[in-house]
Amino acid sequence: MRFAATHKAVSYLMVTTAFVMLMLTGELPLWLSLLVLGAMGGSYFFDPQQHPFMLGRAYNYSLYSVVALLTLLLLGNAASAEAFWDGGLRVLCILLLCKLWQRRHNGDYLQAYVISFVMLLGATFVESSMVYALLLFVYVVSVMWTLTLFHLRREMEENYLLKHLPGRHGQAAESERVEVERILNSRRVVGPPFLLTTAGAGLLTFLFALLLFVLLPRFHVTVDLPFHRRMLPSTGFSERLELGSHGLLRDNPRVVMRVELPGQSPPKTLRLRGVTFASYQNGRWSQHRVGEQPLSVQHGAVALALNVPESVRSRAQRAEIYLEPLDADALFTPSPGRALSLQVPESYGGLLGAQLGVTTDGQIIARGRRSPLHYSVLSLPEMPRESSSDDLALYRQLSPEMRSRLRTIALQVVGTTQGSAERAELLSGYLQTNYSYTTRLWKPSQSEPIFDFLESERRGHCEYFATALAVLLRSLDIPSRTVNGYLTAEWNSYGKFFVVRQQHAHSWVEALLPGQGWVVLDPTPPQSSAPRLPFLFKIRQLLDGLDMGFGKYVLEYDVGAQQRLTDRLSSLWPRNEPARSERAQTNSGEWRRLLPIALLLGGLGLGLLLLVRRLRRVELPMTRDVTEGRGLMKLALSTVRKRGFVRGPGETLKMLAQRLTDEGDPCAPSFAQLVEHYYAHRFGQLPLDRVEITRLMRELQAIPPQASSRPTRPVAMKSV
Fold first, then answer.
1. pLDDT (tens digit, 9 = 90+) per residue, 280-294?
2. Rounded to the nearest 5 degrees, what angle is found at the Cα of 283, between the Cα atoms of 279 and 287?
3. CA distance 296 to 168
4. Could you give the C-alpha distances from 162 to 82, 172, 320, 427, in angstroms and in order?
């Protein structure tokens, strides 16, 4: 394994890992991510040393002028923090590509390392998933490899080679200059033992950090960072409803939220209510937020319904919702259902600046939310009843012309049926069986698109079906409203939770029926939810389960979770029967609880000790030989110095051996042979013959000094 190739490979592994971590956050557009990945792959096979024009100053000035121009173009219109953030990330990509395509010396590699670290920090601000944690481990291991090899390369280029440059001021050269390529292409510098040992060190470091993470006391600190995860675009789901504004919705698999139903058997489908719409005109629905009430958060609890009898509250069900940052203010609740209370983080509404509110129709609003949110909903399975005639008039509102035209269509469907519930069921079934579902858009031919849907097109997505049923019910004086939310049937069997994706966005109808309250009606024809590729679907479920576990047990690990973990561990080692004294019993119980922790700490300490001993044994082959060669000559020079021969300034080892021969010293032959072996190893990269070296050193040390020999002054070498 050549040193230069290994150094380049681990360097690219490090910077590519950092870029992939940033790319997975979704902060970079897809076209830029693919372009940068392709350019990074091309630079790996490009050698700037083979192109002399890239080594000149003119090329550098031109390159950095282009970078400065692109920076001004990307950051010139950064009027907001988000625009500045986006421009800064793109500038980082440009700088990284410049350094990778201009790898001339160690400084370029070092600058690429710094850029990758800044990318890592950017990804850390906005990303929190299991994939991020795994990539972080890869980055840490690659950093250990890269920085070690970077240090060795710098030592070779700046120290080891420069000691053998030609002499100055007319002095003779100490030795010939060693070529850089010869050492960088050597296969004896690094090998698999070095890489495996370093990876083991990184793994032990992570395990030790995990132990500290679990054991150290947790403190509740909330910091509002200037950067947050980018809001998911509200594709499909929106807080406004306009017919024809969305199309091809089934192709967006981004996760919006994950929902757990503790203590409940999972239903076939899960419906989550987001926003409701009351007023309709010319293909547009608008919300009715008159009478919105602010909600106060007390120790993380939010009361939504007061004076609920305990007998009714006992039937309430709990849902744990892990909501991603969404470009909407709505908080989602199970439907059908009546939310009684919420449980949010205690810091919610403090430093985060979020405000909670609830409307008269029961939708929950969270303004200012910019980060992921885990909240619990306690709700009843039935919908609330409405009694105010003023409010119900809003849910019957239609223009006279539209009411007359729609009533004709509705009466053709319901016939002589008089009951509101029966009429609603007939209209919903009629739409399901006589109209087809599609996510492709079509252009309306009149101001009211709903008539195009009912009379000519007879196809559309869920918003058309929900709007058609709602206005048909209103034409028969049945109060109704449309609802935007999500409908999912994707149950994750690994983590036991529902996965809600962008493609699960859905619209349906809530109608007020006599004696039943608000009832959910869904006129959209059911769609097949079977995965196209079952194997890939299983892999995606596994990754979703890992992300869910990482969020629950790592990101949300706080004082309460630590206390619950301690209680669970304590229950595994119950106390024995009372001993002789209460103090002895207490000490025995404490030791039993601390014993597993002590064993774990001892195991980690033993592993670190063995790793340190292993690192001491693993030496770079060429560095070890060079060190032994230098030690050999130091010992030989010390021996001849005792015989009265001191090496002079500018005097090479061969000159010193010749002076010993001229003086007739009996150790001259042995010393001359040692010098030849050292030169062959030092500059010819030949391995040291340890047997021969040992024999010559014994001969050199065994020859007694001459009686007339006494220390002499160093010989000054004159230039010729």
1. 888 888 887 666 777
2. 30
3. 81
4. 49, 15, 65, 89
